[in-house]
Amino acid sequence: MKRDLITPLDFSTEELDKLFDLADDIRLHPEQYSHACEGRKMATCFYEPSTRTRLSHESAMLGLGGQVMGFSEASSSSASKGESVADTARIISCYADIMVIRHPKEGAATVAAHYASIPVINAGDGGHQHPTQTLTDLLTIRNLKGTLGGFTIGLCGDLKFGRTVHSLINALVRYENVRFIFISPPELKVPDYITEMLNEKGIAYEECIRLEDVMSELDLLYMTRVQKERFFNEEDYVRLKNFYILDSEKMKAAKPDMYILHPLPRVNEISVEVDDDPRAAYFRQAQFGVYVRMALILVLLGLRTL
Ligand code: NCD
Fold first, then answer.
1. Cβ(126) to ligand 1 under 6 A?
2. Distance from C-alpha of 139 to C-alpha of 148, rounded to nearest angstrom
3. Which of 41-50, 77-86, 134-143, 266-275 has the lowest mean pLDDT?
4. Which among 46, 132, 61 is positioned nearest to 92, based on CA atoms?
5. pTM passes above 0.90
6. Distance 87 CA to ligand 1 centre (A)
7. Residue 69, φ and ψ in degrees, nearest 5
8. Domains of the chain, with CATH numbers?
9. Going by CA atoms, what residue is nearest to atom 6 of ligand 1?
């Protein structure tokens, strides 16, 4: 049976612990893994723009001694001729050993996984899920805080369209004593299906509009960009795009060990002056993303077991 990663829930928390142990070992001893994927090929099929997600997967595979190929926009693939994701997934299975797919439609990765005979990694499906970003976020939190659980996390910005937020909440509800504070303008609140899920599980959350009102309570702050490409009209985007700007002044109210995460790319929501604050962890987070994807590739290719 092949294994895919479509949502963060595809791995149990015990498996994730072992995956993160493997990622930490790779980080400390990269040379021991540099031939692990020799002779294996990865196809990155990106129907939506990306810098980090595509290149971090490719960097991970190259770091394991494997090879990479792919396309970075739908217009340079047969999608522009009308080919379905299902057919493309079948074809990629003839050429590669593992496939990474990013697509603007929710559910596209599930379809690809169904038709592909090779492992499929969901690199973002519309506003739905982004599980490898979540693995990156969890590994980063585990390294910064020493453990997963027992913290208050503020998620701030576009909680409606941000798939990284949806994936991360899904993953964090499985850990003990995680308190959520959702900080967004009313128009960009977390979708109802998420608050319903939290209510069903009896997990407490708060919703607020002003970052300043909750800053001092947070152990982690997950900032996100307003997702321009998912807006239906330009006017709404323009009105909301600069709703939050985290600057040094606002950071004064934060705990001395309150780390700031951001999946990136950032637009204006974190002022560049914050980059020098030792609590700004977003560039370190991007580095963790390579190690966790290396671990994931090894596991999905069956070269390591959890
Ligand atoms: C995120 C995405 O594509 O969802 N970027 C990423 O993969 N690191 C976040 C975003 O685009 O805002």
1. no
2. 9
3. 77-86
4. 46
5. yes
6. 26
7. -150, 170
8. 8-129+289-300 (3.40.50.1370), 132-286 (3.40.50.1370)
9. 263
